Structures are given as C-alpha cells and as structure tokens.
C-alpha cells in the first residue's frame, strides 16, 4: 500500500460522519464483505442517530459523527497490523505498462500494467494496481474566491499521476465536495444554539459489534443568514 503520508491514513477530509440515507446501507455492505469502516466508526463515534424514525423502516438509516483523530488512529493501527500488508510512504507518478501483443501498433488494450513508479524513481511491481485517489488527482482547494493546488487542506495534489492516466487514454472527471469550516469550540456560545442529542440506545454499524461503549456527545445546530452569505 503506497500513501502520500503515513500519518494521514484514514483522515476524514470532509464532514467527519459515516452513514446517512443511502450511504448507511453501503457501510453495512462493506462490513458484510469484510471491510473495516463499520467497525472503525463503532469504536470512534461521538454520536449515533437513527434518521427518519417517524417514517417506515424502508427509509430509515443510521448516521454517526466521528472523532476525526480517533478514527484516523484506529484505521492507521488496523492497517499497520494487517498481516501480509506492507505500507510505504510515496507519491506515485506513473503506471508501468508492458506490451502483451506482437502487433506493431501499441495501444492501451494491448498493454498490461506491471507496477508503478514514484516521484523519486522507485518502482513497485505487481500483477495489478488499484488506484484510490479520492480528491487528490489534480485536486484544487477553493476558499472563497481564492483557489490553490491540494488534495485536501494541508495535503499535496497528485498532478503527475493525473497527467499519466490522461496520456494513457483514461478520462478524468472532476468531483466537488463542500467541506464545513473547522471551528474552535472555545469561540462558540453554545447557549444560543440548538442542542441535538444522540440516540440513548445506539445501533452499531458493524454486524460484529455487540454494543457501543463510549458515551455520546451532543451536536449543535446553526442556521445561515444574510450576513453569512455576505
């Protein structure tokens, strides 16, 4: 496993929440297939809420707010202790391909991947390559009217790999996320906000979790106004 920063494995870039309408079912499916996401949120959530409880069970779903730091550390620990998995810190720049056809015309359909090359020239070889770029391929961060290159705040953008994939004939699309601002809790007057408590008997995401041990932390609701938009 190659990652740009060993210390940010599992870092939640956007709203630190798992589940919700539609996505909650996906988390359950990942868990059924042996994935770690459901177990991680069950261990690190600060609040669980069952959504649409006034409606029928077909449209109900679970959502949990996570402690970003605890979730990151949990995922990092799991990966570092996974048998048979080697983790390296590296920026991948290029896919390594080889021809599998004797034809003089070499196109992508007649070539096969056999590894990757990093920004410092290291080569890691393998019979297949799985790319999980998230928001990092030619990522751009927008703050107000300002914008700059970055996969997320404080993280590099993977520019060369995007160019390499495009040169190989792959189509790259743009995906947009809207990240909520990070606020200093000491600067907030919580008495003027609406408190939203979690469920008293939270339902775990993972089928293997017997119960939630950590205590719940209330969330607080705010509303936008004309001054905010200005």
TrEMBL record:
This is MnmG N-terminal domain-containing protein. One of its GO terms (cellular component) is cytosol. GO terms for molecular function: flavin adenine dinucleotide binding. Residues 1-230 form the MnmG N-terminal domain. SUPFAM superfamilies: FAD/NAD(P)-binding domain. The keyword Flavoprotein applies. Keywords: FAD, Flavoprotein. Its cofactor is FAD. InterPro entries: FAD/NAD-bd_sf (IPR036188), MnmG-rel (IPR002218), MnmG_N (IPR040131). One of its GO terms (biological process) is tRNA methylation. The keyword Lipid biosynthesis does not apply.
């Amino acid at each position: 496993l190659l990652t740009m920063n060993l210390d940010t494995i599992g870092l939640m870039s956007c709203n630190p929440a798992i589940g919700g309408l539609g996505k909650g079912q996906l988390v359950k499916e990942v868990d059924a297939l042996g994935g770690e996401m459901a177990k991680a949120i069950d261990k690190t959530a600060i609040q669980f809420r069952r959504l649409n409880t006034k409606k029928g069970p077909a449209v109900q779903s679970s959502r949990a707010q996570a402690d970003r730091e605890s979730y990151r550390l949990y995922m990092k620990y799991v990966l570092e202790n996974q048998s048979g998995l080697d983790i390296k810190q590296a920026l991948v720049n290029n896919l390594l391909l080889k021809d599998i056809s004797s034809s003089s015309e070499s196109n992508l359909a007649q070539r096969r991947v056999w590894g990757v090359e990093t920004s410092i020239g290291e080569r890691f070889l393998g019979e297949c390559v799985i790319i999980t770029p998230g928001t990092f391929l030619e990522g751009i961060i927008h703050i107000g009217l300002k914008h700059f290159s970055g996969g997320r705040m404080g993280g590099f953008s993977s520019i060369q790999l995007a160019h390499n994939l495009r040169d190989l004939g792959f189509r790259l699309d743009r995906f947009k996320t809207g990240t909520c601002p990070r606020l200093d809790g000491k600067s907030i007057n919580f008495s003027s906000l609406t408190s939203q408590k979690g469920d008293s008997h939270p339902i775990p995401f993972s089928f293997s979790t017997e119960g939630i041990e950590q205590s719940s932390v209330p969330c607080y609701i705010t509303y936008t106004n004309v001054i905010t938009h200005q």
